[in-house]
């Protein structure tokens, strides 16, 4: 799957991922009203509104991008109906040949991680039948429990040709509270990065990158520069661009000299573009066109930053 | 909610929680066959089997115990249908007046943690209506992202009278890989424990304990002894008893001198008791009675250990 991701990044010339994190507040009124007319102001109504919102954005941007990253919390907050919208979103994006990164940040003791791995990346057996319940291509995983909490995920990646992004240095303001603490003179995030190398060592694709990648926030570019060198074979998923404060110029350090090695996420900045001054002229009625323009602008911003850094 | 948990522990004289982590392999054939007859060997069939398995165990043990801890991964692996079984299990246990600890180990950046907190502990608004999608009483939370990833959960706990158990030292073999690393001469788990105190400081119930508790594995009793003192006002949720190797005699250190302060989880040891030699005479047909006997034996084991330690 890492080979597919890299091939799609090269084909689109767009090392970006659109975060499908649909807060109800981002969904234009005409979409919400249509959903509520059919299903009432219910959890199903909310779920249908975010699903329709997603579908229109995906239709508007799918030809420009390699991948999407639905954040499951935004669906899970609406309970079962929300999770049905998550599943429909994953499935629809795959039908559009997009690589789907499930931002689920799961992680537990071995036997429990095995269940998450089966449900999100693999298969479960029921009697004589086999099912792939959520079937994302990649998921994000929390490393706090160590190797035996990660191994069930890497085992499934090997078997099913899937991939992971392990949280190494997250984009939020207080990520340093534990992640930056020095252990034997090195920050904890570097120790986690060492383990990412180890966990992914026998999962290298023909593209030269491992199926085990890392999450490193755009909001910490100096740390990104270090971690790029610590994990030369890991793709870095970079959240925090745009709304969280990360800028294109900060991003060059997350890439390798081959121009590959990083994929930058933007969520609000794309899906709620029509709410920004720069795209307000599209109007809420044409929110998907605002999202398309925001994608084009993001690609140009990152392309410019990469060219300037050469 | 911490007051309710403590009151129920005192009333039952049982500082234990039954982990409702139903692997299909634990479910007796007669339960599976009945579910498959009605729904086929499908995800719905699997989900109905684990729901019926849960229901019978809960009916058999509810009068003996204060709380249950469904592990969401075991349901999530069966996709939407599995999550419906999770929701039914939560709701059924609450109707039996059991305290429900959702073992979900969520945790993300602030805005995303807020969505998880709303979905699992709080409410979401859809138009003019308000829903409580999963509505557990407590959930487990991963601390790797630091304070701004925790605050949305503590905010909801305050507002909705709910509680948390933060992962401090997990029960699995490789938990020490990151959690035990020394920072300024102290293991990382102690730094997390310091933050648990801080996060829970203004959430103390009338019982004297905070609504922000901690997870500390039964498999590390010497660490449990230290962490008990570091977090005097936190309830400690202790996984790893029984199948994972923790013994009753190891558990005394997790309790305070008031006889309170810890709640010990057993999952497999209770719900799959009929598969153990000690309870094999019950037979698969009477699995729920085997579970009841295993609960009685666990209560006696812990009670004996607490008395011996006095």
UniProtKB/TrEMBL annotation, chains A, B:
Catalysed transformations (reactions): orotidine 5'-phosphate + H(+) = UMP + CO2
Top-level taxon of the source organism: Bacteria
Pfam family, one: OMPdecase
SUPFAM superfamilies referenced in this protein's UniProt entry, alphabetically: Ribulose-phoshate binding barrel
Protein name, UniProt field: Orotidine 5'-phosphate decarboxylase
Similarity annotation: Belongs to the OMP decarboxylase family. Type 2 subfamily.
Active site residues per record: 105
Pathway in which this enzyme or protein is active: Pyrimidine metabolism; UMP biosynthesis via de novo pathway; UMP from orotate: step 2/2
Enzyme class name: lyase
EC number: 4.1.1.23
Molecular function terms from GO: orotidine-5'-phosphate decarboxylase activity
Biological process according to GO: 'de novo' pyrimidine nucleobase biosynthetic process; 'de novo' UMP biosynthetic process
InterPro entries for this protein: Aldolase_TIM (IPR013785), OMPdecase_type-2 (IPR011995), OMPdeCOase_dom (IPR001754), RibuloseP-bd_barrel (IPR011060)
Domain (Orotidine 5'-phosphate decarboxylase) ranges: 15-282
Keywords on record: Decarboxylase, Lyase, Pyrimidine biosynthesis
């Amino acid at each position: 799957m890492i080979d597919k991701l890299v091939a799609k990044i090269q084909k689109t010339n767009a090392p970006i991922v659109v975060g499908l994190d649909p807060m109800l507040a981002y969904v234009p009124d005409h979409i919400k009203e249509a959903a509520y007319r059919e299903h009432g102001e219910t959890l199903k109504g909310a779920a249908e509104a975010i699903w329709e919102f997603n579908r229109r954005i995906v239709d508007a941007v799918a030809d420009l991008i390699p991948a999407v990253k639905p954040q499951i919390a935004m669906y899970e907050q609406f309970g079962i109906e929300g999770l049905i919208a998550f599943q429909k979103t994953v499935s629809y994006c795959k039908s559009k040949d997009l690589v789907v990164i499930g931002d689920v940040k799961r992680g537990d003791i071995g036997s429990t991680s095995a269940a998450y791995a089966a449900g999100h990346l693999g298969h479960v057996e029921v009697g004589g039948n086999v099912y792939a319940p959520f079937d994302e291509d990649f998921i994000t995983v929390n490393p706090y429990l160590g190797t035996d909490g990660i191994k069930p995920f890497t085992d499934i990646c090997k078997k099913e040709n899937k991939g992971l992004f392990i949280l190494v240095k997250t984009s939020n303001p207080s990520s340093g509270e534990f992640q930056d603490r020095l252990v034997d003179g090195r920050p904890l995030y570097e120790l986690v990065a060492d383990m990412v190398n180890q966990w992914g060592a026998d999962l290298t694709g023909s593209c030269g990158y491992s199926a085990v990648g890392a999450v490193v926030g755009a909001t910490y570019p100096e740390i990104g520069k270090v971690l790029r060198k610590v994990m030369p074979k890991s793709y870095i998923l970079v959240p925090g661009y745009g709304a969280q404060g990360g800028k294109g110029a900060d991003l060059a350090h997350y890439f390798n000299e081959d121009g590959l090695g990083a994929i930058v996420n933007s969520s609000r900045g794309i899906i709620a573009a029509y709410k920004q001054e720069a795209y307000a002229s599209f109007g809420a009625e044409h929110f998907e066109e605002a999202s398309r323009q925001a994608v084009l602008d993001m690609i140009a911003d990152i392309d410019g930053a990469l060219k300037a850094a050469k």
